[in-house]
Each structure stands twice: as structure tokens, then as C-alpha cells.
Specification:
Number of strands: 8
Distance between the termini: 124 Å
Largest sheet: 4 strands, antiparallel
Shape: elongated
Structural class: alpha+beta
Amino acid sequence: SNPTYDDRSIRDNIDYSSFGMAQEGKYDESADHLVSDAGSKTQLLETEARQLGNKIKFLKKCSEARMALEDVTDGFLKASVSKGGHAGTSKESGTDTFLVDMAQCICKAKKALAEAEDQYQSELVSNDLKQQDAKAANDILYSIQSQIRRWNVDVHSRACETLSSCITIESESISICEAANPDTDAAKSSDTSTESGGATSKTKANNQASGLKVALDALAILSEEAQEYGKLECAITNIAHEFLSLVLRPVVSEVADSLEKGKKISQMQAWEFHESQVQRRVGSGLKSSSSHFAGGTTLLSSSSRAMGIVSTLEWKQVKSKSDLENKEGATVKLSWWLNLLEFIQRVTQFFCDKVLAQRDDISLVFGKAIFGSLTSTSKKLSSLPFDENIFDYGDNCPIIQSLSRLLWDHCIPESSGLISLNQFTNIKSVIEDSTQQFEAFLKKAGLVKNPTLLAKFGTSFGKKYNEKVRTMILGRGRSLLIEGDYHNSIKVGVNLHEKRKESRPNYLDHIDIEDNDMAIFLLEECAISELGANLFDLCKNTMDLAVDPQASMLSPLLPATLFRSARELLDLFRAVIPASHGSEISTIPRSAAIFHNTCAFFAHKMLTFGLEYRDKFPPGPDGGESPLKKMCTFLDLVPIFRELADRTMNDMIQRQKIQVSEIISPRITYLSEALGSDEGVVEWTDAETSLTAGLYHLRHLSQNWNSVLSYDVYNRTMGCLADSLFTLYLNKVFAAKDISVAGTHFVGSLFHDALRGVTEIFVNSAASSHEAAKEAKKFSALEDKFSTVGKFMDMSLQDISSGLSAGVFRETTGVELSRLVLAIFEDTEARARILHLLGTSQTH
């Protein structure tokens, strides 16, 4: 039961100074009359008693923390003055566990401090602390925190220093020192050395206290309450990075460089190992050990004060003894791969036995740093479709990634063709066995929990081979498109125009009917990019491999992979060429024409490409029909390439129309008003100049396109551009309200020159000027109308009346003829009759 606080002297007699607190004031008897209620007096006393109890609890926890820190200080002082002055040995206990003791005391102080902080925070929340008490509590907490932080750093640095002195990693050796009890019999024994040729020997400390284990245990204790990455994990990770940078990465890099330089397998290096154990006095400066291969021994520092067991693993390079051969005698030169895995396993096993065996919870940390998968920070992109990123990660590349890259580059056949079944089986067997053994070693040693990237090469070698073949094919296609010259062109197709003329009866020239013409199924002769032709040849070679019976024998999914690769080559063309040459295609007429023709070429070939190979696929594994027989089609790519070709050429035609308008329109702005002049004016000269410039531009386009585009595409394109030129002049003439006699002669001459210039454009695709005129009339929708208006300028009203009866003006509307009649002829009865015939009144 709680004590009764009726006696006021209880509180007055408390020695507040012994608790580091100020007395709140003695009880004032004169204030008794203010407390009229006995219950209120009791409640006040209970509140004060609770506050006092909380302060006592806070100070008690602080005292526990200080006592733990004093133990740390005492332990350090005892270790410093211990026998021989060895920093890792306790004189009283005879062991080197003072680091563990100090770490435990630090953790005890941390725990007490945390409880004191919780008590302090609860009093703050309840507003039970006065300002003076709160300041004193803060000072106490800060003092204890500073001491804990200082000792924590000190113990951590000493533990890391112990690890550094016990573990020495060099480019050709690893030395591990296990410090022994100096009072044991081991300290009196002479130096001994044991050698191991191939098997791994595991050193036991014979229940002797090990400085290496103590350091690890101390770091583990300091890491127990770490919310993030613990100090033990950090130390092991640093050791692993040193192990990687000094031992594993240089060896793997040397092997990779040798393979890249094309060294023969007989010249590749293997490794010879020598393991030894030596008992001698060791200190904190273990930086050298006995060298078996160097033929001598380097003594340790003479200041060493404790006996220890120094285990050393040394290695040197020797020539590879033999190559790997299969039963049929075909040499599969993978001995370098087996030697490399043996080296990694040998040095890793030694490190596990000597270091990681000290604690069960550090093997996985070490394995994650050595064989784990890190996230690449590289932004480099690749268009090659890998399942995982096998590119180097720079200095932070995990060793598994480097081994996977070596497997991919040099173990899986790199030819885009098919290898023999025996060679494939042999390579598969070697890789499966070696990777499975290596994975088993990693799991047994506790270095990994889940399969690494190497496991995928062993368990699914057929899939990896399929990916490698596909990658090589796509890589060749990508190199073709990027490194080749897109502007080089070759002729493909058939000259259908000449072929038609050779076999076409003469009477068909007068009617628009073809005589049993099957040319619609042929590709018209045109120039395509040489890159496109080479890419299509690569597609054909890929499909030839897909229908090869040996492909399905190597891997059931290889034919499907090759079929997919052939389709992806065409996708590469659609992706790479517009991206790398898009500006040229959109601005240069010849480049646009080449791209148009290449897309049309692919669209034409894809119509029958799938049919050529559909029936050539071998039967499936069960002897039934191959599923690829139903899937093999490229027809879905036809509209894609056609749309791409049409859009490219239409955009270029629209661009050229704009350029023609920009050349002509500024010079004929006032031509409609100037036609009423009785003599030549500057506007007439500008109109002639603009016509000359416009025709020159069309001739320049003709020179670029005539040898590139097919016959029909060229004529339709030039006819479209000629119509744009005709339209500009026709609009100005039809808009004129008054045309003088001199103006009619000028317009007739101007239109005649325009027709002659346009006809010359079509001469390049025709055998004679007569045929050129026929081609111009055939492919230009406004040629007849433009010619009729030019002739109209030299006609009389009587000629116009006769022409209406003869159908000369059938390409011209009645409104357009009426405007010309009103602008050229005076108001007479003859003009009125013509206008009446045209279906309009004189006032129109």
C-alpha cells in the first residue's frame, strides 16, 4: 500500500541535492487555511510523490548507463596494462575477449539510456517537469550520449583494425591470422606448415580464443540495434569488395582480355595452389607471409606479442594442360572456363573456411556482395533483346555478371548459322555440369539462397542458344542499317513499260484496255537502298535456317525464334532508318524516293514471302504438322510498309508543291490587273521569270527522280507537280476582268512555253517528244485545260462558237469560258450569242 503523506515534515526532510534537483519549497503553514478540502490536499501530495518517483526512475536509469560506461573504461584500461601490452588480451581472463565485453557494456548503456529517454519524454508529455528540471535532464542525457558515441566509435574502429590485421588479401595470396591464447601449448610449439594440392582444409581454433572471431562478435553486438545497415554487414561488405578488386576481378578481366585477343586455348592460363599454416608470433601489422612460390620466407614484425596461426593460400599461373574433347573427338575448347570456375571456387572456399566459418550470419552478406545482383546505374540503351542485362556495370559489376558475360560471348557459339548437333550437345553438357557444380558450391557454403544468373545457362542452355542466334542476327541487321551508306542504291524489279510495248498489239494504243496483262503481280523497276536489299537477303537467310531440319533438332523453339528474328529485322528497318535519316527523307527528294521505293519493295516481297517457306517447315516433335506452318505469314506487314511509303512520298510532293508556289506566286501577284495593258509591263516580265524558275525546279526534281522512281510513280508525281504550276497561272487568268489584245498574245505565248517545258519533263521517261506529249496529257489532269486556255487567247468569237460545237472546250467550265469572253471581247451581239450558248447572261 502507498505510504501516507499526512506528515508535512516528510517532504521537508528529503535531501534533494543528493538527486541533483532543487527543492521546490517547504510547506507554508500559513497557507493551510487555503486548503479547505482534505481530499484536495491528499491529491496534491500524491501528485508530488509521483513526480518525485519519476525523477528517481530517470536518475536510476542514467546511473545504470554511467555504470556501464565505467565498465567500458575499466575494461579498456585493464586490457591496456595487461601482460605484454597486447590490445586484444585481458590479463585477468587470459583471453582476448575485451572487445566483446566492451561492446556488451555499450549496448547495456544504450538500453538504459533509451529507457531514461522514454521516462523523460513521458514527463514532458504530462507537463510534470519544470523548466529547471528539464534543462538538468537534457544535460545528463547529452553527456551520456556523447560518451556512448565516443566509445562506440572507439570499439568499432578497434574491431575493424583487428579485422584488417587478421585478413591480408593480395593479388597472388590470401593470409588469415587466427590469434591464439599466448598461455596455451600452441604458443610453445614450433612453426609448422601443411600443404594442400587440391582439397580444401578447414582450420579449427581448438577452442582457443580467436582475435578474428572476437572482432566479428564485437561488430555483431554493435549491429544488434542498428536500424539500417549494421556495422558487421558493412565490415564484411568492405572485405568482400577488397576480395573482388584484388583477386577475382583481375583474374576474370585477364581471361576476358585473352579471349578478346584471340589467344589459343593452349596458351590460356590455369592456376596452381599452395596452402600453408604457420604458428608464430603475430601483431597488428600482418602484411606479409611466407611465400612458397617465391622460394623464401618473409618474417613478420619483430614487435609481435601474441602467438597466432597464419593460414596462407598462394597461387600462380601455369599453362593449361589439355583441352576438353567429346567422345567423337571434336575439340570443344572450354578448359579456360572450367579453370576459371575452379580458381574462384578454390579461393572462395579458403576464405569461407578461415573467415566466414567464425559466424553463421556473415556468409550470406559476403555472398551477396560477391555473387549478388546489383542494379546498374548505366543509362546506355541497347536495341538487342536480352532477357537480363549482361553488360558490364563498370567497377561495381558483380562477379556473376562478368561470368555470365563470358559465358554469353565465348561459350555459346556466336555464329548466326547452325552448329553441328554433336558440338551443340557437347557444349551444353560441359556448361550444364560446370554451372550446376558451381551453384551447388555456393549454396553449400551459404553464400547464396536463390539461383544466380549462371543457373539459367545451365538449366536452359537451349533457350540461351536461341537468344544468342537471334541476337547475332539482329546485331548484323542493326550494323547493316547503321554503319552502311543509305544513299547507295541498286535497281530491282522489271521495266513493265518496255515489256508492255514489246508484246502489246498496236490497236490497244487507241483504247484503254490491257491485253491479258499480268504485270500487276510484278514489281516495277525502281531504285532501292542497298541497305534494304542486304537486309532482305539477311531475312531470307534467316528463314532458310528456320526451315532447316537441323534447327528443330538443336532446339525445338529455334525455328520459331528464327521466324521471329526475320520479322524483327523488318521492324528494325522501320525503326532505324526514319530515326537516323529522318531529316534527309523529309527534305531531300532523292532520299524520300529511295525510302519510298524500299518500303514498296518490302511490301511487294511480303505478299508471298511467307508462302515460300510455309510448307518447308519440318514436322513437329510428335510427327504432326508444325505449328509454324499456320503461323508463317508476313502479310500483316504489307499495309504497314505501304502506308509508310505513301506517307513519305505524299509529304514530299506536298513540300514540293509549296516550294513551287513560293517560287511563282510572289511574282504573279498583280498579273490579273496587268493583262489589261496594251503594251508590255514589268508584271509580264515577272510572270515569264517565275515560269522559267518554276520549270527549272521541276526539271531539277525530274533529274533526281527519273532514275529512281518507277515509271508510273514518276509520271504521276511529275504530273501532280505540273498541275500545281498550271493552277497558279490559270487562277490569275480567270480572275482577270480585262485582257487586252497584247495581253492575249502574251498569255498564249506564256502558256505555250509552259506546256513545252512540262513536256520536256516527260521526255526523260518517253522515247520521243510525241510520246512525251502523250504522257503529259495522260498523267497531268490540267494539261488539256491549260492548253485549251492558251489556244483560246488566239481565237475569234466565230472560232469559239465552232469550238463549242466540236467539244474543244470540254475540259473548261461554262463559267470560266464566260469570264474569258467578257474579259477579252467587246460587248457585241456576237459576244452575247456566245454567252447565251454558254448558259449565262451578258450582265454576269
